[in-house]
């Protein structure tokens, strides 16, 4: 039977890969922000010194700004390489994000210390680094960065109040300008904080909406592919039904003519139409064997089509598996005796009933047991056993026969398939017995499994769910 497209063909990339790619894109966004920050710092330093007349240590401040730009150039190169390679995990990228935010905090602290320290209103810019940390990092890492930022702020306050290092006042200007500088400087700090907060908020919202749109698009794509798969499955089901109907019609049309020809050949071979030479009788005997095989094929095709097409829900009833096996046991023992094979039947009477069609279940047990007897050499053994647990009833048919090669195990339930070692030794078969077993298991919701080793036998196990009425 054909199979629909494997679901792996439409599955999205693994979640760790998506997370790593998203984190790299976020780092690239932070690199762009850092360029803007470096330019902004340089502009603010210049304006404060040359237009407002604030005495600032220009050389150290410009050096730190240049260091920030150089550091960002290195990060730009690293981020560009990561975007090209598309990392498969987030561990390395997360470590890089943690390192960047920590270094950024120290850069900000150095700039603030040289421009007023704790009294600088731009101290609130520590908040933005924590916002960025909350976007990029885990909850634990975000609180680590928060603790680090708080420690840095308290360290600046300690250095300033205890005079542990030289302090650079922010507003060293004439007295008449002092209030203006502090007032407008604070207003600028607050305004820039508001605008940056709005920028971060809208950026985050835009990214979330973009991801939401991507998820919706992916969901619609998956839904469409699921519909396509459903349509393909329906088409396959109709094709399978058409094939089964054709098989049933052909088998039904062939069955009667084959039976008639088989009977007529028997009459001729037995001399009812006149004496025949021995070699003619031998030829007719071989013809009769082949006709019997064709009749068996027609019979099995009818059984297979019935197992696949019938609505078993209308035939289901409470069935005792022990009773089904017991009814077949006399014929199976006779077949085992003729094949010189020991047959052991151990299906206890007290097994729970299962929901099934008695005729189909009898066909299943008969096919499995007959196969086991047929492919077990003289002197071997076949065992039919049953057991129950809380989930259902299990039937096992084990033999010490020729076994099934590993390369054939995946095909033994296909129509007309016979393993290579099953075709030797004069063992005739239709190649449909196990296909019928599989179809009956499917219609009963049973699990079918097989364990086999060449030369050491096979065990077929059918697990039926407990009856529910």
Description:
This protein is an alpha+beta fold. Among the domains are: 9-173; 312-465, Heat Shock Protein 90. It has 10 helices and 7 strands. It has helices at 15-51, 58-85, 91-113, 126-136, 139-161, 175-269, 278-309, 321-338, 358-374, 433-443, and strands at residues 317-319, 342-346, 354-356, 381-389, 392-399, 447-453, 457-465. Residues 1-15 and 172-178 have low confidence and may be disordered.
Low-confidence stretches: 1-15, 172-178
- How is the main sheet built? 5 strands, mixed
- The multimeric state of the shown protein is single chain
User: Order of helices and strands, N to C?
Assistant: HHHHHHHEHEEHEEHEE
Structural class: alpha+beta
Number of helices: 10
Mean pLDDT: 79
Question: How many E-type strands?
Answer: 7
Shape: rod-shaped
Strand content: 5-15%
Span from first to last CA?
Answer: 32 Å
Percent helix, as a range, is 55-70%
CA radius of gyration: 42 Å
Q: What is the strand arrangement across the widest sheet?
A: 2-4-5-7-6
């Amino acid at each position: 039977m054909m199979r629909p497209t494997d679901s792996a063909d439409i599955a999205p990339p693994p979640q760790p890969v998506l997370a790593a790619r998203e984190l790299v894109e976020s780092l690239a966004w932070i690199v762009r922000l850092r360029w803007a920050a470096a330019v902004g710092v340089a502009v603010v330093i210049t304006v404060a010194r040359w237009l407002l007349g604030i005495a600032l240590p220009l050389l150290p401040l410009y050096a730190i700004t240049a260091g920030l730009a150089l550091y960002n150039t290195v990060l730009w190169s690293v981020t560009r390489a990561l975007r090209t390679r598309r990392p498969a995990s987030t561990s390395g990228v997360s470590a890089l994000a943690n390192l960047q935010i920590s270094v950024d905090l120290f850069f900000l602290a150095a700039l603030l210390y040289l421009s007023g320290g704790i009294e600088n209103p731009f101290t609130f810019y520590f908040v933005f680094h924590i916002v960025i940390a909350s976007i990029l990092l885990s909850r634990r890492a975000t609180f680590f960065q928060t603790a680090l930022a708080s420690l840095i702020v308290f360290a600046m306050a300690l250095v300033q109040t205890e005079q542990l290092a030289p302090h650079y006042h922010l507003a060293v200007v004439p007295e008449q300008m002092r209030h203006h500088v502090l007032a407008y400087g604070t207003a600028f700090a607050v305004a820039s904080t508001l605008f940056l907060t709005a920028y971060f908020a809208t950026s985050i919202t835009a990214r979330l909406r973009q991801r939401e749109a991507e998820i919706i698009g992916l969901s619609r794509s998956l839904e469409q592919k699921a519909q396509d798969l459903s349509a393909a499955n329906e088409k396959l089901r109709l094709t399978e039904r058409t094939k089964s109907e054709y098989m049933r019609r052909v088998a039904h049309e062939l069955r009667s003519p084959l039976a008639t020809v088989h009977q007529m050949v028997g009459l001729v071979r037995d001399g009812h139409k006149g004496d025949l030479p021995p070699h003619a009788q031998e030829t007719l005997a071989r013809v009769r064997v082949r006709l019997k095989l064709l009749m068996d094929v027609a019979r099995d095709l009818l059984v297979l089509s019935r197992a696949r097409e019938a609505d078993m829900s209308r035939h289901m009833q409470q069935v005792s598996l022990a009773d089904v096996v017991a009814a077949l046991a006399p014929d199976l023992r006779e077949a085992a005796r003729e094949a010189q094979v020991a047959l052991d039947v151990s299906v206890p009477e007290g097994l729970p009933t299962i929901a099934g069609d008695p005729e189909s279940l009898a066909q299943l047990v008969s096919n499995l047991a007959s196969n086991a007897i047929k492919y077990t050499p003289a002197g071997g053994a076949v065992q039919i056993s049953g057991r129950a647990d809380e989930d259902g009833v299990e039937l096992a048919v084990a033999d010490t026969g020729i076994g099934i090669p590993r390369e054939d195990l995946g095909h033994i339930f296909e129509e007309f398939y016979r393993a290579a070692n099953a075709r030797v030794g004069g063992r005739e078969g239709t190649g449909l017995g196990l296909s019928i077993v599989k179809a009956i298991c499917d219609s009963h919701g049973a699990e079918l499994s097989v364990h086999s080793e060449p030369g050491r036998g096979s065990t077929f196990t059918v697990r039926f769910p407990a009856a529910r009425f």
